[in-house]
Specification:
Length: 205
Amino acid sequence: MSWIRAARAMISEDLDAAMLRDPAAQSRADLAVNSPGLHAIWIHRATHRLWRNPAARPAARILSTVARALTGVEIHPGAQIGRRFFIDHGMGVVIGATAVVGDDVMLYHGVTLGGRSLARGTKRHPTVGDRVTIGAGARVLGDIEIGDAVQIGANSVVVKPVPRLLYTSDAADQRSSVDLGGRRTIKKKTTQKRNRETCNCRQNK
């Protein structure tokens, strides 16, 4: 059946992504058996499918509660999560009902994608772009956007939008990050510039 083939392809893709991001992993089989982060996202994909059917929402909630007890990761069935998502260690991660997460995102343990409003029927949780990394213990709160390729440091509290990394010809040498104060910084390697300066000095001599 087509949905079985799609599920197998997605599981294989998740395992490949986890192998790239977890240096402690011994094999795909090791991850499949021992990674609570992978177990959590696999169960979430099932609960999210159920959530899209209003009649099945009670079952989706029950299954997500079971997943939380088994993995230590709480993902609301309503959360929208992209491809190749990986949670390292897993324990203590919370992802709210209206959160939207892009592709190739990595979270470490203790991350919260939470809300700041108690209003019903509104988007209360963050939208996270593609290729984002969020460090252990970070809190990203409210209906804000975290742009593509952003890195959020451990234990940060982020309550304002963070623009995506603006790509340039040497974008591979740039990193967009958020520090503990929620400030955005872009760090750029200066190796080439220093090399040029060294060459000029030698010529002048």
